[in-house]
Specification:
6-stranded parallel beta sheet; 46% helix
Length: 488
């Protein structure tokens, strides 16, 4: 632990310099605490933007990735050679293992955000399984697999293929959503079986991807060893609510000197389960003194948290394990590309949106040219008073208007569901007015104004929002959507 602490000491002065700088005038990419890397981050965003354009729900980069995997399968089938198909089958495995790392090269080199990295992991893993099946079929049809000299390759390949298929089946959405801890343990178990038998199968090239994953695990373990356990103070839910507020005490949370708005952590309560790691968004802003998490205690794990809190005094300190923070937006909100922001949330998805909204308000105070910012939040049973104040927010209450908690001061309340068409249309008018642009301005270049639309909430809301943004895109004003849904 002392050795790892020495390694982190070398970055501590840079972090403190960053923290002091953030209290001064705003600069682009100030969340990157190493100043010399900020220019590289800007260049990365410029190069990555064409790959992030979306068509029919997928980005250009994801289409290229899928096309590459399809080419590998076609090459295997065309060559009809067991050895060649086996060599090609290792490539999607490497990509899947690399995408599984939380500190993935995809995140730092290509700027792929977490929720898209998960999609890339699913996509490459699917192609890896299909390619492995094709490899096995070629071996059996060509009778290479049934030769007595290849029996070791046969049984090791069958075990590895079976483990890969079980990885896919146990990753089904219903299992992940309803039985998260079981999914996590089975995922690790089948991955270890797959990795061992791939190596026995002479697929040693996959060690590149496995090595990236192992390096990530070791880095996170060292990081967790230094910063855990973390002391926190927990506020119980008020009457009629099931949301708890977790305040990470700043003396034990130096890692949060440099977190970015909209990020999230994995948190575990050792008093409940050492394996119960759950992803929770950070609801506070880096501009605020104490990192806060707001956790909706639904489901089995949430109920165990509430029972655990009932056995401890109110506002008492607790020891928790925290892994992170992680995550980044798929659009460039840290630079000076965007001056207009539309934040949309459903339910507890307001937590990362609040973090971003408060950060943007603070950056505007420190000189950032934020011309327009609105927050639109859909709730069912009322606004939970546990959540801190949110700037420029309009609340849409889908339940009975008399039910729930009284609307806090400063909130605009509208009964009924969001109608994204008028919201986007009115926002575009406001943006054009704030930029002093009229419809008759023909001299402006295409995409002169790019609006950052940030969404977090139920998956059913997302297509409606994207459709409205696409409908109200104009030659001058273009909406770029970043989304996070309640799914892992």
């Amino acid at each position: 632990k002392a050795t790892v602490s020495v390694l982190y000491w070398f970055t501590y002065r840079a972090k403190m310099e960053y923290t002091n700088e953030c209290r001064q005038e705003w600069v682009p990419y100030e969340e990157v605490f190493v100043k010399s890397l900020r220019g590289a981050v800007g260049i990365r965003w410029m190069l990555a933007y064409p790959l992030q354009r979306r068509f029919f729900g997928f980005s250009v980069g994801e289409y290229l990735l899928g096309l590459g995997c399809m080419v590998l399968i076609v090459l295997s089938l065309v060559s009809w050679d067991t050895a060649n198909s086996g060599s090609l089958a290792q490539i999607p495995y490497i990509a899947a293992f690399a995408a599984a790392a939380k500190n993935s090269p995809l995140t730092y080199l290509a700027g792929v955000p977490f929720e898209r990295r998960v999609e890339w992991h699913k996509l490459t893993a699917t192609f890896a399984i299909l390619h492995a099946i094709a490899h096995g079929a070629i071996g059996f049809i060509s009778r290479d697999a049934t030769k007595s000299s290849n029996y070791d390759q046969l049984w090791s390949g069958c075990v590895a293929g079976g483990a890969a298929i079980m990885l896919g089946l146990t990753s089904y959405y219903v299992i992940r959503r309803q039985f998260w801890e079981i999914f996590l343990m089975l995922h690790i178990l089948f991955f270890l079986v797959l990795a061992v038998f791939l190596v026995i199968h002479s697929a040693t090239t996959v060690l590149i991807g496995i090595g990236l994953w192992v390096a990530d695990v070791l880095l996170r373990f060292a990081y967790t060893l230094v910063y855990n356990p973390t002391q926190c103070r927990i506020k119980r839910p008020i009457q009629g609510s099931n949301i708890i507020e977790v305040t990470l005490l700043q003396t034990d949370s130096r890692r949060f000197d440099t977190y970015a708005p909209g990020q999230w952590v994995f948190i575990s309560f050792p008093g409940i389960s050492m394996f119960g790691w759950h992803p929770i968004s950070i609801s506070s802003s880096p501009a605020e003194p104490d990192p806060k998490l707001h956790i909706r205690c639904g489901g089995d794990w949430g109920q165990r948290v509430l029972i655990y809190l009932q056995n401890h005094p109110e506002e008492s300190e607790h020891s928790v394990l925290v892994d992170g923070p992680y995550g980044n937006c798929s659009i460039n909100i840290g630079g000076d590309v965007y001056q207009d922001f539309l934040l949309v949330a459903g339910g507890v998805g307001i937590t990362p949106m609040r973090s971003i909204a408060v950060t943007l308000a603070d950056q505007k105070r420190r000189g950032r040219d934020v011309k327009t910012m609105e927050v639109h939040w859909s709730v069912r049973d009322g606004i939970d008073a546990t959540l801190p104040q949110i700037p420029n927010v309009t609340v849409y209450k889908t339940g009975n208007i008399e039910d729930g908690v009284t609307t806090p001061k400063g909130y605009s309340l509208i009964p009924g569901r969001m109608n994204f068409g008028p919201i986007i249309q009115n926002f575009r008018r406001t943006v054009m007015a704030n930029h002093n642009i009229s419809k008759s301005d023909k001299h402006l270049p295409a995409g002169h104004i790019r609006v950052a639309v940030l969404f977090c909430g139920p998956a059913a809301m997302l297509p409606l929002l994207k459709t409205a943004c696409k409908k109200h895109n104009s030659r001058v004003v273009q909406f770029d959507v970043h989304s996070e849904v309640f799914e892992f």
